[in-house]
Amino acid sequence: MKEQEYWEKVYTTKSADNVSWFQEHATRSLEIIRSIHPKPDARVIDVGGGASTLVDDMLADGFEHISVLDLSASALEVARKRLGVNGEKVEWIAGDIRHVELPEQSYDIWHDRAVFHFLTDPADRLAYVQQVMKTVKPGGHVIVATFAPDGPEQYSGLPVARYNHVQLHGEFGPAFELLEHASEEHKTPWGSLQHFVYCHCLKPN
């Protein structure tokens, strides 16, 4: 509950474009998703999506089945209101990815740029991977981004784990086929730089 209260406070006291993780467009994520050449009826979940604009661009690309999950209901409400009537096309899920009930073998694409690096407890990371195993379709795509080794040691006042692509892939295990990895130099709204690493894997059949 403390974590939920923390993020609710963030999104009720700050505007969505005045936080360090704000991206006008989630360019790197979009590049990877588009490279998959998914069909419009592909089911996508954005884990920790909050007020991210990724959902806006996926809707513009024609995706018909998008779910956005976040611990903060306030963050989801920011995105839903921003989208207006298009927000009705999205499934908004307020919950903790470690415990929330999601449909089994339902998602073609799992995307996360916001959650995994906050899981500093090995038990929490295991619960996360178990959710991936349960809810992503066999052969589905798993895209996870975290802070790189030279990224911040704390983020928004919370401790984070940092990874290179080998370490990040290792958290999911060799059964996940690593298709590609990429880096990103994120510029915050006030001009500082943060380094991310992305891993794009296939879930085992």
Please name the defining characteristics of this protein.
205 residues, alpha/beta, Rossmann fold, 7-stranded mixed β-sheet, two-stranded antiparallel ribbon, 9 strands, 30% helix, 29% strand
Q: Compute the gyration radius: what is it?
A: 16 Å
Specify the number of helices.
6
The H/E string reads HHEHEHEEHEEEHEE
Which residue ranges are poorly predicted, with pLDDT under 50 across at least 5 consecutive positions? none
Distance between the termini: 35 Å
Quick synopsis:
The protein is α/β, with parallel strands linked by helices and 205 residues long. It has six helices and nine strands; from the N terminus they run H-H-E-H-E-H-E-E-H-E-E-E-H-E-E. It has a single domain (2-14, 22-202), classed as Rossmann fold.
Q: Any overview of this molecule?
A:
- The protein is of the alpha/beta class and about 200 residues long.
- It has one domain (about 1-15, about 20-200): Vaccinia Virus protein VP39 (Rossmann fold).
- It contains six helices and nine strands, in the order ααβαβαββαβββαββ.
- The strands form two sheets. The protein has a seven-stranded mixed sheet, sandwiched between helices. It has a two-stranded antiparallel ribbon with strand order 6-7.
- A hairpin with a 5-residue loop joins strand 8 and strand 9.
- Helix 1 runs parallel beside helix 4 (about 75-85).
- The termini are far apart.
